[in-house]
């Protein structure tokens, strides 16, 4: 049980570590178009991302798939940039006046799942270095993944909480919130790509 908690904490610390902020940026970009009232949609979106990164994290840690680390390190900020830029074109149905049909968001879930596959390979480098030659890796892998998920949910809560303050208390528009947050994330992702 002690080992499980150690890997759980390592997973949590890995995704919330300010020095490795690329994964934090991705989660922020995913959430930027949503409000607190849409927490269920955000949960589905983050779960899609989790499923994606869980698959490749397991496969790469078990060394069932191989890839070039430099390529993954480049692809991660590209996924962040694409997600942030897609937010500029995201439209919610209008609630006033004549109801419009709900915007089809399934492509966002597919995107989160696909990009999760790439991020999982990035996580696996860190986890493999922690595991070393340890024979039993299923429990540490599970614990690390749960820690990552808890960390993601903390980030989501902070982003949605901040959006509530900005939109509902400071009376900014939702569009301005989305554009500012997505613009900052896109700029940071672009600088990560250039540095690669």
TrEMBL record:
<dbReference type="InterPro" id="IPR032809">
    <property type="entry name" value="Put_HupE_UreJ"/>
</dbReference>
<dbReference type="Pfam" id="PF13795">
    <property type="entry name" value="HupE_UreJ_2"/>
</dbReference>
<feature type="transmembrane region" description="Helical">
    <location>
        <begin position="20"/>
        <end position="36"/>
    </location>
</feature>
<feature type="transmembrane region" description="Helical">
    <location>
        <begin position="150"/>
        <end position="170"/>
    </location>
</feature>
<keyword id="KW-0472">Membrane</keyword>
<feature type="transmembrane region" description="Helical">
    <location>
        <begin position="177"/>
        <end position="195"/>
    </location>
</feature>
<feature type="transmembrane region" description="Helical">
    <location>
        <begin position="43"/>
        <end position="65"/>
    </location>
</feature>
<feature type="transmembrane region" description="Helical">
    <location>
        <begin position="71"/>
        <end position="90"/>
    </location>
</feature>
<keyword id="KW-0812">Transmembrane</keyword>
<keyword id="KW-1133">Transmembrane helix</keyword>
<feature type="transmembrane region" description="Helical">
    <location>
        <begin position="111"/>
        <end position="130"/>
    </location>
</feature>
<protein>
    <submittedName>
        <fullName>HupE / UreJ protein</fullName>
    </submittedName>
</protein>
């Amino acid at each position: 049980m002690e080992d499980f908690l150690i890997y759980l904490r390592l997973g949590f610390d890995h995704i919330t570590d300010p020095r490795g902020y690329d994964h934090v940026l991705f989660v922020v970009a995913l959430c930027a178009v949503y409000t607190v009232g849409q927490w269920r949609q955000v949960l589905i979106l983050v779960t899609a991302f989790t499923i994606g990164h869980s698959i490749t994290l397991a496969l790469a840690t078990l060394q069932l798939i191989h890839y070039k680390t430099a390529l993954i390190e480049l692809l991660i900020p590209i996924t962040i940039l694409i997600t942030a830029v897609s937010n500029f074109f995201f439209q919610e149905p209008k609630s006033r006046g004549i109801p419009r049909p709900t915007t089809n968001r399934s492509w966002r879930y597919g995107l989160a799942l696909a990009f999760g596959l790439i991020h999982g390979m990035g996580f696996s480098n860190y986890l493999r270095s922690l595991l070393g030659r340890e024979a039993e890796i299923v429990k540490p892998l599970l614990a690390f993944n749960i820690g990552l998920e808890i960390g993601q949910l903390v980030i989501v809560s902070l982003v949605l909480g901040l959006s509530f303050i900005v939109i509902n208390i400071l009376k900014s528009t939702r569009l301005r919130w989305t554009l500012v947050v997505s613009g900052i994330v896109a700029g940071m992702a672009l600088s990560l790509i250039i540095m690669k």
